[in-house]
Amino acid sequence: MLSIEELAAQVTTRFNHLLEQAAVSLGELTIIVAPQHLRELCFALRDDPDFNFKLLIDICGVDYLQYGVSEWTTNSATATGFERGVECQDTVRKEPRFASVYHLLSLTHNQRLRIRVPLNEARLEVPSVMAIWPAANWFEREAFDLFGIVYSEHPDLRRILTDYGFVGHPFRKDFPLSGNLEVRYDAKLQRVVYEPVSIEPRVLEPKVIRRDNRYQVGDEV
Fold it and tell me: Closest Cα to residue 99, out of 133, 54, 53, 65?
């Protein structure tokens, strides 16, 4: 079995004309490819006996909106005294905000591989890989539902987790946490009705660390 570094070298040599980057971190290999080269790369990774990645483990969307930004800059509770839900300041991103990420497994060579496809925020579209791995069906529907990523040539791209009347995409972070609509059963009409959400916006309270003698070591009881 090849080491992860040897696999990275092999992949880079074989697909240098397709890849934007290949990097090993924490014992895992991640390769970055543009959407227009994804299917060509995936077909080769599946069918080339040197790789033989026959098994698709997962497809997920990723939002890098606040990637690398943290308000927890010290060892204390927080830097600002608020929970993580507080809005962070906008930062200039050098990389595209969204990506579609694929995890592959080669049972023949006992190797794992991650493919990341950066997506243009104005056009969240990437080719479907269902023709390569039929297991991509539900994974692509989930990423479409939660992130709004469109997988072109998917035969049945529709929501899979949220309600059919849901507006927006939950993991895009572009709508109120309470949502825009709520549903209830109307006994008089004998059906479910949709109404504007009635939950009041929640304001986060500062986190306060209080002294508690139950957790003081060495204090007399």
Answer: 65
